[in-house]
Amino acid sequence: MNGSLIVSSILNPPILFFFLGVTAVLVKSDLEIPPPVPKILSLYLLFAIGFKGGVELIKSGITQEVIFALAAAILMACFVPVYTFFILRLKLDHYDAAAIAATYGSISAVTFITASSFLTELGIAFDGYMVAALALMESPAIIVGLILVNLFTADEKREFAWSEVLRDAFLNSSVFLLIGSLLIGVLSGEHGWKVMEPFAQGLFYGLLTFFLLDMGLVAARRIKDLQKTGLFLISFAILIPILNAAIGIAIAKLIDMSQGNALLFAVLCASASYIAVPAAMRLTVPEANPSLYVSTALAVTFPFNITVGIPLYLYVIDRFWR
Q: N or C terminus of the chain with fewer C-beta within 10 Å?
């Protein structure tokens, strides 16, 4: 593999600020970002990527590639929790296995945004409809995870308020804002983009960098939780994203995606949720241990993907598409 891709990824300012946050925790600096700020930054990033994606979607139109890509996104969001559940059951109980499987079936919007910024830096084009794939992959994994819990703990007579489950899956703040921004981008089109571009694009890179600084702080604080997971889950948190990315790349090749779109799809397949799914699991599966599914996704898979995973997946794509 060409090491320059990894170096290029790591030397990106957002990634360097991520490691600055990690370092701050490790050396016990008092660097801290007030809690409301990361929430505002995450809302901004979702708005900006959703709005721009909507504008690009209306420009490209609904083509056969778009339909195949969105169908593949939903398929992967349902398939990943099922097969990973049975792998996790080798070492974990039903509750922890289902919660972690749902986490890895869903996606990380920040990993997707980091990958899109990486492609922009390299001058590789990608299409706005991939934001729609991002939005569609958030919720199915939550529902599949809860179905798995229901199926394998039926004898324990657990009850779910399915109306609340579906509400959390489809109307949680990140999904709602992302889909809403996408639709507004579609409706306002090129005219809306001209009006919003200074805010939606001009500030984007800087705010992403600041957000990843906070992510570095949070991830480093979760490192100690990994002592509870053992080698099995640490290995799972690295190897499963690679396997999911490989499946995603194979699908992307099959439906003839461009290189940029293929990378974003692979990243969606390889990433793990550390916001939406953990929130849903804490509410609906309180028996599952949050330190397992949060620490593996945030302290292992997220850093791996943004430093090594993204350039690795792009290298493989470049070899197959050449």
A: C
